[in-house]
Description:
Elements: H1 2-25, H2 31-63, H3 65-86, H4 92-99, H5 102-114, H6 120-137, H7 142-147, H8 152-174, H9 180-207, H10 215-243, H11 245-250, H12 255-267, H13 273-290, H14 293-296
Amino acid sequence: MWKAYAFVMLAIILFSGNFIAGKVATEEIAPFTLAWFRTLIALLVLLVFARQEFKYARPLMLKNWKALYGMALTGVVLFPALVYTSLNYTTTINASIVEALTPSVAMVLSFLFLRERFSGLQVMGVVLSFSGVLYIITQGSLEVLLELGFNIGDLIMLTAVISWAFYSLLVNNHGSKFPMYGSLLFMLAMGNGTLLVLSAILEWIPGGFDINWSAKVVWSVLYTGVFPAVIALLAWNQAVAMIGPSKASVFLNLIPVVTAIMAFFFLGEAMTSSQLLGGALVLGGVYMTTRKQRQRKGEKAIP
């Protein structure tokens, strides 16, 4: 049993490290370009062991390419690009706490688009978690709220969360139709092509492609493509297979905690009182929101 918890903690640590590596890399690399490098590296790594599965399922995936492209657009393209964009303007701690809001956002979207019903406790959890995020992005200041003086990075991160929530809905509806690694390879290929076009239009043509490839930037880029995008996903899937999605999904709430510890040691970021209180509200709300959902199905992993 200890191996299962070792796998799940490895995944959580690697997922959390994505914020640190992203913060370092975006000092030199534009966000969509970084997302493109990430998907390119992950694609090359995944080719090693997913090629046969991809070939076997290619006719099925080509037939259902629209659903797969929807997942690629929301989960492979927009989510990482928006996360890395947000890190240009906000702290890694803020970004990780806002990301913890994902289950609550997914629940709201499920109600709006799928007409799912939820308990009063889950609704209270959504309200509590959104209140926590609002407290963080206003830094506990009523003046910031009244003047709408929000940190643009926090709002961009919230947009990333919405994108991932849409991805989760698409996975719930279509994911079981396809083999896991073959479909991931297919989505990475489509996502990488899309990011190539977006990076050229939004970043390379206006600002050029001049990158200072220092050692820390190189290692940060390699980290984003290998560890959170591939190794963490494999570790997460192994943990879910051993202990089930219900137990494994509880550990996702540790991502803001682990990120805060990493940010302190690697970036010198210290948690503020508004982050502590807001983070507690978010995690408490997420626990209430997912309490009954975990009895039916587990949360999706964060890439």
